[in-house]
């Protein structure tokens, strides 16, 4: 009664008891609402055996020892137990067992079809291989029956593409062939195995190999950043300045027989107009750079911002100027006469260490200067007077280079150069009204100069500034690097195989949300580097924590 119910329940309603028919009429059963329920499909994970070892040889030996234990545990084999080191037959049997496990989980339906009819179905992914079943293992049938090659090469074992043991096989052959490329790797592995989608798998294995990556590392890239306000805001020349040192360059003080003296050249570049100022530097000391900075300020006026790299002399000059600025600030409280000195401090902005792409403007000026210098001076060692004259002439050439293309309007200047901005810069100036609506014939000499200056800046805004709009490099958006990523830190003084393994511990986002500067933790401390100086290691997704920790020992 409990399991089957009353007998009348299986009959028509007219055979039900009267009381049950009455209740059924008073309380009719409402039809149930149909609803669609989405349930996640649980995919069977790969066999746990593939995850027991991280290398193919270790996995084969482990399976071989498990098979030996099972063989020795049988009573029938008590007198012929296997001992000593593993034999070739045991290793081959382990390979077959691993292949059989992978095929049973990936090609179960194909195996049943081959057992039943001798071939796979027409919609099978293996139909082009004409697979056969030999020793309970799917092998490629193919058309090489009469070829004078080994049986393993005629009928290689079919392996699934996205399976852990298949990737271990590819990694093993890649390392066995001394880190071969994809083509050699595919040609060799097909002598015994036939992995599906082998080309993509081979490229991925080669790309994710740490040693191959260290031989030819690839630095990070990110979308080219927006130009800073110092580059696109109109202002007087050299108010916003970048500076760099180049050299050494040898010259003589007096006669031709005097010993050559090593010197350097400081190149100041206006960030707005690309105007260049060149000075000779005695050495790389902080005092020598401050002396050069004083000469620059005396001739071009005091800048408000100086951008440079992280050279030691620049750092020393920055600290000394900061101390001088603090002295000015303290004197302001004691002497009102020197209150204007508190506004005379020069702000230094440093780019990340070893990142010349952050200072491309003055790096390009250094390149142009070296080209003129080598073409003019060659390998000769000039006198100091001749050398200083040559520096001034090169400065004149660089300030005469065009900033924009030649205009087709005859009323415009022939070409816009940095020299046009240098001529019209007074030491102190006030805001002037626009004389655009007044005819030129009614303007006096001073007003004509101001109108000429206004036209120069108008061309700067319309022609030069528009030319800075496109991104000439790094035009694609990249994924930002994350904290904790293992990287190689580029070192220009060492080969790539000796670059150190470090880990990113802090990132800096720009206004557009992209990361271009990071801090990495090394054994010597923390370093601030641009992403152009680091290479992200291609750690495999299946790599274990033990494999990742082993990178430090390589």
Please explain how this structure is put together.
This protein has 554 residues and is of the alpha+beta class. Strands 7-6-5-8-9 form a five-stranded mixed β-sheet, sandwiched between helices. It has a five-stranded antiparallel β-sheet with strand order 13-12-11-10-14, with no helix packed on it. A two-stranded antiparallel sheet has the order 1-2. Helix 2 packs across helix 3, helix 6 crosses helix 8 and helix 13 packs across helix 14. About 4% of the residues have low confidence.
Provide the fold topology.
Layout: H1 18-26, H2 56-73, H3 88-106, H4 108-117, E1 132-134, E2 137-139, H5 151-154, E3 157-159, H6 164-176, H7 182-189, E4 193-195, H8 198-207, H9 210-215, H10 229-232, E5 240-251, E6 261-270, E7 276-281, H11 286-300, E8 305-308, H12 312-334, E9 347-350, H13 360-377, H14 384-398, H15 418-423, H16 445-467, E10 486-489, E11 500-509, E12 515-522, E13 525-530, E14 534-536, H17 545-549
Parallel strand pairs: 3-4, 5-8, 8-9
Antiparallel strand pairs: 1-2, 5-6, 6-7, 10-11, 10-14, 11-12, 12-13
